[in-house]
Amino acid sequence: MFLYLLGLLVFYYLYRWVRELPRVPDKGNKYVYITGCDSGFGNLLARHLDKKGFRVIASCFTEKGEEELKKACSGNLITTHLDVRSKDSVAKVAAMIKDKVGGRGLWAVVNNAGVSVPSAPCDWLTIDDYKHMLDVNLNGVIAVTLSVLPLIKKARGRVVNVASVFGRISPTGGPYTVSKYGVEGFNDSLRLNMAAFGVKVLCIEPGFFKTNVTDSAILSKNVQMLWDRLPQEVKDDYGTEYMTKVQVLIKDKVAKMSDGDLMKVVSCMEHAVAAVRPRTRYSPGWDAKLFWLPLSYMPTCISDYILGREAIPIAKPMQ
User: Fold this and answer.
1) Residues 4, 9, 11, CA angle at the centre, nearest 5°?
2) 176, 181, 238, 282: which is the annotated catalytic residue?
3) Mean predicted lDDT score pLDDT of the chain
4) Residue 215: phi, psi to the nearest 5?
């Protein structure tokens, strides 16, 4: 019986591998719009798709990001400035893309731009902290998508949204998981809405990887700034040892958990853009596959217990 089940499993994965091999033709006439190309996944994806022959429109937040990407890629790649928080910036880039793609439409948009700070326990934060991140990680994704959706419908193309395993389970406080849950909800609703138009909507849910999102220096500076501005009564609730242990957690555990092979994520992005039959969801990273996603399917009492055991104790727990 075990061998029979093993055989079925092997057959399933072999069948899926063969089925997912074919790639779309005529890449040289397919435009792909990528956000957040200054560094990390977006930067690598822009380079990778450019080498594959796609017409890449890479948006960056900084001039330095644009310049470095131009030097590293072919003359076919187009760079542009984009601030996903700005309606005018989003509309300006969308108008430029409309002029470039013409009647063929836009093959794909990859919503990759995102930030991970401010992040901290919920009672350390203000509503402005939440708004700051949601404007980038969620509202920015929606704004960019809607700005080019008519062009994607014309091409019967793809929308690729970069969420996170933290869009499936929330082990920390703050707006990051809220924003990623929002991306998951937008992705699911858009996928159903666009199916009748032949538009595919795909979601990337990475685990921990070495990018600015998991950069220990950025995270440590952020949490120290948030701690310093707290009222003394809140500091007393948590205790000074709490802050020390948070810094150790960031510098030690987060760094060790983060995978340095960013191509695991970029390969999933490329497949979502280029495969004839892409997957609805991709979960790059062994931590995502073997821990975070299985944990997200468990009953809440079990996932809360597991996450609670790893939580840093506070100075004044309720009796």
Assistant:
1) 95
2) 176
3) 94
4) -65, 120
Helical segments of 138-280, H only: 139-155, 175-194, 216-228, 232-238, 240-248, 255-257, 263-274
Tell me the per-residue pLDDT of 86-104, one tens digit each, with 9 for 90 and over: 999 999 999 999 999 999 9
| Residue 297 among the catalytic residues | no
Closest CA to 225 of 136, 122, 120, 316: 120
> How far is C-alpha 302 from the chain's CA centre?
26
The pLDDT tens digits of the residues spanning 173-212 come to 899 999 999 999 999 999 999 999 999 999 999 999 999 8
Amino acid at 65: G
**Half-sphere exposure (Cβ direction) of 179: Cα atoms closer than 13 Å:** 28
- Residues 6+ positions from 275 with CB-CB distance below 8 Å: 20, 22, 23, 24
Phi, psi of 159 (to 5 degrees): -115, 125
pLDDT band at 317 (very low <50, low <70, confident <90, very high): low
DSSP letter (8 states) at residue 275:
B
Question: Mind listing the pLDDT tens digit for each residue in 268-280?
Answer: 999 999 999 999 9
